[in-house]
Input
Amino acid sequence: MSKARLEAFSDGVIAIIITIMVLELHAPEHATWTALLPLWPVFLSYVLSFIYLGIYWNNHHHLLQAIKHVDGRVLWANMHLLFWLSLIPFATAWMGQNRFDAQPVALYGVVLLFSAGAYFILTKALLALHGHDSVLAAALGKDFKGKISPAFYLVAIPLSFVVPWIACALYVLVAIMWLVPDRRIERTLFQ
Amino acid sequence: MSKARLEAFSDGVIAIIITIMVLELHAPEHATWTALLPLWPVFLSYVLSFIYLGIYWNNHHHLLQAIKHVDGRVLWANMHLLFWLSLIPFATAWMGQNRFDAQPVALYGVVLLFSAGAYFILTKALLALHGHDSVLAAALGKDFKGKISPAFYLVAIPLSFVVPWIACALYVLVAIMWLVPDRRIERTLFQ
Amino acid sequence: MSKARLEAFSDGVIAIIITIMVLELHAPEHATWTALLPLWPVFLSYVLSFIYLGIYWNNHHHLLQAIKHVDGRVLWANMHLLFWLSLIPFATAWMGQNRFDAQPVALYGVVLLFSAGAYFILTKALLALHGHDSVLAAALGKDFKGKISPAFYLVAIPLSFVVPWIACALYVLVAIMWLVPDRRIERTLFQ
Amino acid sequence: MSKARLEAFSDGVIAIIITIMVLELHAPEHATWTALLPLWPVFLSYVLSFIYLGIYWNNHHHLLQAIKHVDGRVLWANMHLLFWLSLIPFATAWMGQNRFDAQPVALYGVVLLFSAGAYFILTKALLALHGHDSVLAAALGKDFKGKISPAFYLVAIPLSFVVPWIACALYVLVAIMWLVPDRRIERTLFQ
Output
């Protein structure tokens, strides 16, 4: 089964998710900076989610480059990942509109946690298909970042109810960790 | 005529349909679980429709993999399928916002029924083009699932007016039936 | 210059235009047929525009299949076509919400007229690039449908102010004319 | 690393950005020209942004045609460009709804300025990867337009607070400058 349509469909869904989030940035009624100012938490949460979706697209791109074919299980593992990613705009809007209040920040962490879990399941489905000696297995290696991220979310979620800002800082930290270039897959593939 | 653009266009439309549904999940005004709770029927109907659209995309993917070319009739049969699928977000929103009330649940079934019919017509248009000895014909086989699904919808629609929850259970049942891997097409193609 | 990205971008834009129109079908607040009924003009105008956009996508698909390359002029002629098509959801919403009243029906015709004009300009830009002896020129032939459609719109627009329903009937007539298979391009290409 | 998915994803995002802008053109409640008339500033700002996004898509198309491969840095430089472009619908809506008032016109210029900066960074990331003797380097040449555009925005932004209409005229001027065919890249590539 070809992987091209899986890529095209995932690209489409992620592109739409990333773009409809901006619809939550409602243009204020008045033409003043004062009217614009209250949008900053909505804007900040948009930036954070944009980066997270960028990371997912980036990782998805790398992951599928290391594979050769897909099966029904992979198709559904991928759909499952897209489902959790599709909830990010909702969680982003709730968090932004309530200025990083406790429950919305916790829910945002829950959506990130399930997205990370869905990505892990997709990785496993691909490994089951390609074998543990494959380019993919070598490329993934120990997947340190993939394993440490859920731990951060698990700490951040309960913390949201105590100090929401620290939970947010942890989400930002995980994003930065992923942004720092990780040449593992690239190195293994092209050496 | 090439099938690549038909796939790309269908992928685009299905990706957008699946993603705009999430716009019906309006972020509640207040930052409490109590404010979030009333969203559960909207969320549940979102999950159900997400799975249905995933099934359609998946089946469409398999169907087009078994074919070689398309003609004008296929293009329009495909457009007709996309039309009915495009009504799913509307039916989903109405059903979710009215907490699975009789009429919305019936309408949801009607949209599923016409989508299934449109898929059947698309299959026929492809068979007319590829012949009954083709890989496609062998791959489709008796198409048990495709034939039993409309029967379920036809039972569920009148039932909606009596016990809406049983109609919903039937929709879920059909979805589960499709999720259970059906290796018919894959097996025929790659043996 | 390759035509693949032009196709992909156009597919994307047309897929989104066709799908966001359905957002105008707002789920009614109450769960009754009575609440659903007033939506019929919005639904009818959605169906008409869906068919028109399907025709444009179909024709665009055929047109680009007959060509080999594109230049800057073609890119902008294509963008110009997408601009007019992007106004169809607006015209559709205005017409549907006002139950096919005079001015909205006239505006709908104006958007159809300019879309047809933009398509004609795109054809010319492609002919200028491929020459009058090309497959494209042979495939287009006398382009009877392309020439008669604007005439219908030009009659329908003023008629909207007298009897809007006849103008609508003319729009439907043009759509039907295009739906009737036209094997010109296919025949020339594949003989 | 292949550039195909980068193109597909960018096409998707730009196609969605360009199309969701039209959602700001809300169909007026009444079916009269008088009700339609107040939409003209929203319409004009839609036209301007449509052209700007068309220019970006066009340039992006040309830029990626001159390159052979991408790396992680290019992926993120591209994502950064898409981020600023994704703010165009917001700036467009604010400017249109406030009839080209001072602050919104200034913000529009800021978004254009950062988009131009992000495009410049993407160019640099691609040059770093392909070398200064590459087809890309030759094709870009002195990039006069790319260097003069930010200067125009930098003049227009403060001017917005004095005479907003002149700032708008400068934005239009930059757009026209880009629309005038620039055959540099095409010439270098295909000679």
Observations:
- Chain C has a mean pLDDT of 90.
